[in-house]
Amino acid sequence: MSAQAPTRNRRSVQADAAGKAFNRLAATCVVLFALIWLVPFAWALITSLRPDNEITADPVNFWSSSWTLDAYTNAWSANPIGWWYLNSFVISTLSVLFTVVVCSMIGFALAHLQFRGKRVVLAVVLAGIMLPMESLVLPQFMQFRALHLLGTYWALILPSISAPVAVFVFHAFLKQIPSSLIEAARIDGASWWLIYRKICMPLCRPAVSAVAILTFITTWNAFLWPLLVLTQTKSQTIPVGLSSLIGGSAIQFAETMASSVLGILPLFAVFLVLQRQIVQGVAQTGIR
Hints:
This protein is mostly helical. The protein has helices spanning 4-48, 52-57, 70-78, 81-112, 118-130, 137-146, 154-161, 164-174, 179-187, 192-203, 205-221, 224-229, 238-243, 253-285.
């Protein structure tokens, strides 16, 4: 016994050293990735507060002798950023509502209902996860043009409703609900709709939060599809509207960076308000 004690101590010391080394490596990676994202944002913020003549003379300088907010006032008055905010907010909010309702129903049906072709439907959903969205741009464009929906909010909302990832998340989470609980509710006379609304949905709030937040962020940041279907300037979203600022012969860097900062601020607000729900949803649903 006395000979085994030093061996166990050495193993525990080695395990502690390995754990500390791994923690340092993980912290270093987190800091590096944070800097990769934060440095461009900090540069955009600082550039938006500098006068144009200083930016032209020294674009990479992080200091200014005269800070100013003129770029923000000029960007807001020269461009319909308010309309872009409204469009992005309405489209993202409606997309979240429809996606959560529709995809949770599909996930509930695949998890607890028995019907013919259930495995085929699940296989099609999983195949949709591997299908790149760019391959659907042309068929969707032709479809919405035939339905006379181009230039409307529905052209952006309807494609986001059929989200295979959201269906997969709800299916995986609802599958963890014990079948005995569902069977007991059925024995008590509860309908499938009542089970879905009163039992399953309250239990899968982390999945709802994860899907809602990721859908909001994805819809807000969407660029290619809104660029194709939204033709009028006032009907554009924030990413599409910001891209239109970079195209002239003389680019106003301060105003462009100010517009970019204004476009990022809502996502910052969403993250700061719902960061606990984001962490819980990602941890409990397995999204990576």
